[in-house]
Amino acid sequence: MPTDPSSAPPLPPIVHAKALPRRLPVVGEAPALVPARMINEALYCERLMYLEWAQGEFADNVFTVDGRAVHARADVAGGELPPPPAPERADTRDPDDDEDEVVSPLPYEARALWLSSESLGITAKIDVVEGDAAGVVVPIEYKRGAAPDVPEGAYLPERAQICAQALLLRDHGYTCDHGEIYFARSRRRVRIELDDDLVAQTRNAVLRARELTASGVLPPPLVDSRRCEGCSLVAICLPDETNLLRGIEPAAPTVEARDDSNQMEQFWPTAEADDVAADTEVVLRRLQPARDDQLPLYVQEQGARVGVSGDELVVRGKKGETRARLPNVSQVSLFGNVQISTQALRAILERGVSVSLMSTGGWFYGRATGTDSKNIELRVAQHRAMADPEVCLRLAQGIVASKIRNCRTLLRRNHAEPPEVTLFELEQLAKKSERAESLPTLLGLEGTAARSYFSVFSGMLKGEAAEAFDLDGRNRRPPKDPVNALLSLAYSLLTRELAQVTASAGLDPLLGFYHQPRYGRPALALDLMEEFRPILGDSTVISALNNGVVTPSDFIGHPTGVALRPPARRRFLLAYERRMDQLVTHPVFGYRVSYRRVLEVQARLLGRFLLGEVPSYPEFRTR
Ligand code: SF4
Question: Per CATH, the architecture of 34-215 is what?
Answer without folding.
Answer: Alpha-Beta Complex (3.90)
